[in-house]
Amino acid sequence: MASRKKKFETYKQGRYTPLHPEKYIGRGRPRYLSSWELRFFRWCDVNPNVLAWGSENVVIPYLSPVDGKVHKYMVDNFVKIREGQNTKKYLIEIKPKKQTVPPTKHGNKKKSTILYENVTWVINQAKWDAARQWCTKNNVIFQILTEEHLFFNKK
Q1: CB-based contacts of 30: which residues, under 8 Å, 6+ apart?
Q2: How many CB atoms lie within 10 A of CB 125?
Q3: CA triplet 34, 1, 113: central angle to 5 degrees?
Q4: CA distance linking residue 112 with residue 92, whole number of Å
Q5: How far apart are CA 34 and CA 118, in angstroms?
Q6: Over the stretch 19-60, which tens digit does the pLDDT of each residue have?
Q7: Which of 5, 107, 123, 143 is the most exposed place for a label (fewest CB within 10 A)?
Q8: Which residues are catalytic?
């Protein structure tokens, strides 16, 4: 029987070497878990308005609605950006658009797929609610970026 690759092994992963390491907040080289994260790293690295950026360097506790326990949410990115005369701080989560809307049921989905999507949705909602609360307390903006944001110039 052929071995099946785990779901995460099918995504582009690796370590990014910043061209401007003075802007990177963190130790060593940041790890990306998808080509989307890599694209965002490159954007942060070369954009002159990005003053500082980090990967998975902000950890926010959240209560999981699935098991009722407190877990750690490692937000994908922190970015400090010059916007005109102002400087703003952002926490950025990178997700496929389909994970940012409630899952839908349709006839050809397996029950296990529907269950997985629903569990993912409720956990993400708990994480994002905790992130929004943390951001409000810390004067930071929370934003979820999807393929629409990362690939807006592609057809």
Answers
A1: 15, 16, 18, 24, 41, 54, 55, 56
A2: 13
A3: 50
A4: 29
A5: 22
A6: 999 999 998 999 999 999 999 999 999 999 999 999 999 999
A7: 107
A8: 37, 76, 95
Determine how many CB atoms are found less than 10 A away from the CB of residue 36: 21
The secondary structure of 57-79 as a DSSP string is EEEEEEE-TTTS-EEEEEEEEEE
- Asked whether 95 and 144 are in contact (CB, 8 A), the reply is yes
Domain boundaries, the chain: 7-150
Q: Does domain 7-150 have CATH number 3.20.20.150?
A: no
Q: Which amino acid is at 62?
A: Y
Q: Is the pLDDT confidence value at 3 over 90? A: no
> Which token pair is 154?
């592609």
Assigned token pair, 62: 């959240």
